[in-house]
Design goal:
36% of the residues lie in helices and 10% in strands. With 81 residues, it is an alpha+beta fold. The protein has 2 domains: 33 residues; 31 residues, no CATH class. Strand 1 and strand 2 form a beta hairpin.
Length: 81
């Protein structure tokens, strides 16, 4: 009886494995892929959750914006001047 149960369990596991292998390509088409950071740079098109901006940028209104914008140190003035 135990050998029969083990054989049926292994058979069921093999069927589930085959179903997963066959269904995987179809499921992959349904889920959008994200390729990670891409070398797009400032002003590139992005979409939150789908097309990310490169490292050091964030997506705002479908364009990549630098996290720390560039500034000229010589244009910085102190308080009261």
């Amino acid at each position: 009886m135990a050998r029969n149960l083990v054989g049926m369990s292994i058979g069921a596991l093999a069927v589930v494995f085959l179903v997963v292998i066959v269904a995987f390509p179809f499921l992959r088409k349904l889920v959008p892929s994200v390729s990670g950071f891409q070398d797009q740079g400032e002003g590139a098109q992005c979409e939150e959750g789908r097309e990310p901006c490169p490292e050091g940028f964030f997506c705002s209104q479908r364009t990549c914006v630098p996290i720390l914008p560039r500034y000229n140190v010589n244009d910085v003035t102190g308080y009261g001047s």
